Request: fold
Amino acid sequence: MAEFLQLLFAGLTIGAVYALVALGFTLIFQASEVINFAQGEFVMLGGMVTVFAYKAGVPLPLAALFAVALAVVVGVALQRLAIEPAKGASVVAIIIVTIGASILIRGIAQIVFDKQFHALPAFSGDEPIRLLGAAILPQSLWVLFGAAVIVLGLRLFMERTLFGAAVRATAANRLAAELVGIDTRRVLAFAFAVSAAIGAIGGILVTPITLTSYAVGTLLALKGFAAAMLGGIGSPVGAVLGGLLLGLLESFAAGWISSTYKDAVAFIVILLVLFVLPQGLFGRRAIERV
Amino acid sequence: MTGPRSKLILLSSLLAVLVVVPLLFPSAFHLRVAALVWINAIAALGLALVMGLAGQVSLGHAGFMGIGAYATALGPRHFGLDPLLSMALGVIGAAVLALLVGRPILRLKGHYLAVATLGLGILVHLVLVSEVAITGGPDGIQVPRLVVAGWRVVGPEVWYWITGVCLILATWIALNLEDSSTGRALRALHDSEIAASVVGVDVARHKLLVFVLAAVYAAIAGGLLALLNRFVTPDVASFLRSIELVTMVVIGGMGSMMGAIVGAALLTVLPQALTFFHEYEHAVLGLLIILFMVFLRQGIVPGLLSLFARWRSA
Reply:
């Protein structure tokens, strides 16, 4: 029971991070039909910038704020300088642009920072909380709580505000949204900014547990993408559930089967899902018009 | 689309380049880099068939390269097989894998196909990294020297010619495929799968065929790479390698066999030229990809061809 709980919490914690990455994917995909492979780099930037600002003597909350702001700037720059000029290109071409952006961001991070692994101090101590024999790090609660706040906040924003409605309208039909006077360029920039911020916050929250380096983005992006696929791409609820489910599968596979192949779980799952259920667990079947 | 004449032009200009390069750059280092270009070009050609001709995407193609390379390394070490036989077995292995996973994978489209092939490539890479007892893990493994009928195949010059001839053969086969009824069927399904199936193209079979052929090309390239370097590491199958292969095809010009070779040459030579600022290699690669996709989306070869056509008509 203790071991089960331990794996459950570990899985939920890492799953919450996957969920945030997947949510970022979903947000951009809804607004622009772009799959942003650079999503993981926002997570990396969040962690790395905070680490280096903190080491330079900036108080942790300020360092975190600065990291999120920087990720937002990078996100908007990505949309304005790389995605928008490539408008009208094929799906494959845009995937390649975002992969190029991801390599570029990682390459710059490698020069500006370094190639070492870095940690942040846990926000509220390292004393584990005992629960039915399992030890839970307080930082895990921060991750879960932070993720929950982001998910709910985004949902409220989308449903209750005018700008949220504009984002949803753009997602439903960009041309029609433009016709009723919505500035879809702003909506797109907003989508990139928010998903950069979400990724960066995820990176900051999880760095005290998993450490960070310039290279963590790629695998996180791929797993977040797998999570988004698992949930059915384009569905925010699916993204969150897909992320949590993937985290749990990974954690239990590592605990009960093989920790060597922990990273393989995401890709095996995604291949199986695609073979059996190509529209994901919560996605709607896309209808192709000829 | 290549007629018999342009096919001949392409093949003979390739042959001319093959002959001229050693005259201009006779040093061992340059010949080795050129051999790497030919090897990457073989893998890129296969991918160009999948991406350019059939309009499918594979983000895990380095996985097949890894299978070819590791088969060549592991056969002699664990089973005492001849390296060449091991390489052939690796190529067959890659083809069988492509056949088995290609069937369900190729039903998918766009993003889904991208992520499925990506997952496949990453799984191959993970196995190569994790099975330390068999593959030597992240540190890589030695490849024995190739000896054919008592002749020790060594030296950059020898490998330059071997890989060069392989590339010419690979190009010839790719051009013929492009020109055959299969090529026309693939182009048709590229434009519209439904329209193609309505006129009687067996869409699934043709997609599978070209996917398997591309896997074979990649595995051959991987095997040649292992024999040339006499050492392999899991890097050969990494995600970044897959992306490099895709980039070669895209930068050179999707849908152009010549483009795949030009793209391979560019992406192989450039990092060698940039080694003195090795730190910036990734940043430059990323920037190049973005710039090409934004400013020269058709790729180098089709871009130049359309410029040339405009200049002639003006």
About this structure: Chain A has a mean pLDDT of 85.
